[in-house]
Structures are given as structure tokens and as C-alpha cells.
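Colleagues,

For the teaching module next term, I've prepared a clean inverse folding example: a structure given as C-alpha cells, and then the sequence designed for it. I'd like students to try predicting residues themselves before seeing the answer, so please don't circulate the second half yet.
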């Protein structure tokens, strides 16, 4: 985690924390330390006791940090429960990611759905100039065959206004978005097109929920898998998570 993200993520849409309320019993030392560290309005930060006694959790957008009750120590990292193996910090992120994705309209995504019914959904933040994005796209048929629906969201790594961004706008504005996505990832030229599109919004949303590279896969429970994962390994992992005997 990088300190500068704390300031960037303050611009996240308020929907992510709309249903959250800060614990009223937070020590003053914690709030004062956080004000000094983040230099923001404390009302924009979700504060609550952490699973570790004497430590408090501060959620700034989709960034989580931990502060000691005396306000002297700040921890930037993950907390894992050694008894259960669960990543407590990532569970927080997962909820935010899922809430963010559910706020979107599926019609604004480029969707590859199984012919015989959807069993699971994988959201993929993609870049059309990313080699591993092309590699995973070649495996979409295998994912579909396993009942996994792929929902693409735009994440042009070069930023809004770049050549990649313009190519992705053409994909999202194409009459046949699926074919345009397949063609451009195969290195083919596609017809330039413009329309009202969600490319910039999806890119900004991705940044706000911790996406920094592509491909970035988000599973139906909000778990983030950064980078390429072979189709069969992804299928096996999803099956394992959905198993009634899974402890994840």
C-alpha cells in the first residue's frame, strides 16, 4: 500500500460508505493522529475497533490503515486471523469492491455469457494493449463452457485520452462489442467509433477500488485476483470457493 493513495482515494464516491457509521467510542488520540496523518475531514473516514485489542481501523475510501489507541503508531498492511486463515483486511476490500460493481449497469460492460446458463461471474478490468489481457481473452470460451460469465470493464493503463483509451472507446461504442473486443485483442484494426461511453468512469472506479494493473479479476464475492490466471486454475479455484466444505 502506498501513502499517496490515502489522498487519492478520498475522492471515491460516497456510496461505498453510505451505510457505515463511525463508532462513537473512538479515542480522541486516534482521531487526532488520523487528522494529522491524512489531513482530511475526519467525518469522511470510517473508524471502528480492529480485531486486535488496542488497535483501531480507519477506512479511507477503499484504503485501510490501523492506528494504536494511544495514537502513536500507524500500521499499513493486512491483518490475517491465524486461527481461521482469513485475511480480515481483504474482506473489507472485497465488500467495497462488490458494492462498487453492483452499482454499475451490466449494459455498460462487455459481457461474454455462457450459452447454457451462468453459474458464476468474473469481472475483469482490462486493457486492449495488455498481452496478458489478450491471453486470458483467448480462454474466455473455456470459462464460458464452465458456466462462468465474463464481464469486462475498461481500464486503459495509459490513462484517459491516451491511444489505448480511444481504442477502448471504439470497442464500447461498436455495434458488436464482443466482436470488437475479440478483434482488437487479436491485434486487428477496428472501426473508430464515438458515443456516450463509460470508459473513463470505469477507469476511475477501478483506481478507486485498488486496481493498478491489468488484467484484474474480481470474483462474485469481491475477491481481487491481480494478473493473469490460466482458465483451468481459475475454474478450479472458483469451484473450491463454492464447495460446501470450503473454509475460505
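(Answer key — instructors only)
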Amino acid at each position: 500500500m502506498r501513502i499517496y493513495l490515502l489522498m487519492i482515494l478520498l475522492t471515491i464516491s460516497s456510496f461505498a460508505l453510505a451505510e457505515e457509521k463511525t463508532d462513537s467510542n473512538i479515542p480522541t488520540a486516534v482521531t487526532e493522529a488520523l487528522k494529522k496523518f491524512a489531513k482530511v475531514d475526519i467525518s469522511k473516514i470510517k473508524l471502528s475497533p480492529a480485531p486486535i485489542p488496542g488497535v483501531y481501523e480507519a477506512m479511507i475510501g477503499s484504503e485501510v490503515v490501523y492506528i494504536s489507541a494511544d495514537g502513536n503508531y500507524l500500521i499499513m498492511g493486512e491483518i490475517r486471523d491465524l486461527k481461521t486463515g482469513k485475511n480480515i483486511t481483504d474482506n473489507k476490500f472485497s465488500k467495497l469492491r462488490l458494492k462498487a460493481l453492483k452499482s454499475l449497469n451490466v449494459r455498460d460492460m462487455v459481457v461474454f455469457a455462457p450459452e447454457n446458463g451462468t453459474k458464476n461471474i468474473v469481472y475483469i478490468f482490462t486493457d486492449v494493449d495488455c498481452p496478458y489481457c489478450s491471453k486470458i481473452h483467448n480462454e474466455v470460451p473455456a470459462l464460458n463452457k464452465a458456466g462462468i460469465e465474463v464481464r469486462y470493464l475498461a481500464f486503459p493503463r495509459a490513462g484517459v485520452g491516451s491511444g489505448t483509451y480511444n481504442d477502448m472507446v471504439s470497442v464500447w461504442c461498436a455495434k458488436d462489442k464482443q466482436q470488437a473486443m475479440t478483434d482488437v485483442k487479436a491485434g486487428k484494426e477496428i472501426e473508430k467509433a464515438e458515443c456516450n461511453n463509460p470508459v473513463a468512469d470505469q477507469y476511475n472506479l477501478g483506481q478507486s477500488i485498488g486496481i493498478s494493473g491489468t488484467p484484474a479479476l474480481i470474483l462474485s464475492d469481491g475477491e481481487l485476483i491481480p494478473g493473469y490466471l490460466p482458465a483451468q486454475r481459475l475454474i478450479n479455484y472458483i469451484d473450491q470457493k463454492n464447495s460446501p466444505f470450503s473454509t475460505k
